[in-house]
C-alpha cells in the first residue's frame, strides 16, 4: 500500500517529473513518490490489452542508481574488424539461414536466442531503427509463416545477433522459434526500415511500450547512449502484466544508472507483486500527462498490442501509412508529426 503522500494528483507532479532529465538525482532518492503517483493515476481507468498480440503484430501476429561518471562510460560492444561484412543488405538479397547458437529462458514464456552470423567478424549492419523478417514453413503448412522481429543486440556486434521472443498460444512462428534446438537454422531477410533515427535529431524522445514492443525502443535507446556525441534525453513508459514480463529490465536499468540525467524508465504492471513501488494498472492519459515531456523538439514512439495503440495513439493503417493520431496523445495536444507508431 502506498503512503498517503504518494496519492497527490498526477498533474501536481508534472513539472517535477519533467525536470528529472536536467537535474541530478538527490542523494538516496528512490523515485518512489513519483512511481506511487503514477500508480495512483493508473488506478483511475485503463483498457485491456496485455493479452492480445504484441509488438503490433510485429513480434507475433527503477529507481535512480549511482550518478554517471563524467565520461558517461558506455556499454560499447566488441569492435568489428575494419573489413566486417554487413550480413543484411536488403534489395534483391534473399533469405539467409542463420544457425541458432544458444538459448536462454528469461521468463515463463520468453526466450533470448542467439544466432550466429556467417563469420566471426561479420555484423548485422542494420540501420536504426529497423527489423528483420523471419520465415518458417512446417511440414503441415501450405504456406510459410513470415514475421518481423527486432534484434536486441547491437547492430555493429560482430559474430552474432540476439532476439527476445515471447511465445504466444497458437502463434506458429513464436512456437517454432521456442521449439528450435541449437544447431538448427532460421531464415531471415532484411533490413525492414522503420524510423530513420539520427543523433541529436530530437531534444527528447519519449517511448511508450507494451510487452515485446520494447524491442524497437531499446534499439533506438541503445543507439542514442552508445554515441558520445548524441545528447538526446529519453523517457520510457513501459507496461506489462507482471514483473517477470518486463523484458530487457537489466539493460534498461543499466542505462538509467549510467545516464540518470538523460534516461528515465517508468514501469506499470497489471498484477504487481507485494511491495511494488512503481506503477499499477494500465498506461492511462493521466500517467502520460505526468511523465511525458511537452516542450522542445520532441519525438514520441509507440509500440505494443492493438488495444494499446487504440487507446494511446490510434492504429497505423499499414507499414507505409501511419494513420491519423488519436487517443491519449492527441487529447494531450501532441500532433501527428511528433508521433511514430512502430
Automatic annotation (TrEMBL):
It comes from Hortaea werneckii EXF-2000. The lineage of its organism: Eukaryota, Fungi, Dikarya, Ascomycota, Pezizomycotina. FAD binds at residues 147-149, 164, 166, 173-174, 215. It catalyses: 2 Fe(III)-[cytochrome b5] + NADH = 2 Fe(II)-[cytochrome b5] + NAD(+) + H(+). Residues 93-198 form the FAD-binding FR-type domain. Residues 57-76 are annotated as: Disordered. May mediate the reduction of outer membrane cytochrome b5. Belongs to the flavoprotein pyridine nucleotide cytochrome reductase family. Its main location: mitochondrion. Coiled coil: none annotated. This is NADH-cytochrome b5 reductase. GO terms for cellular component: mitochondrial outer membrane.
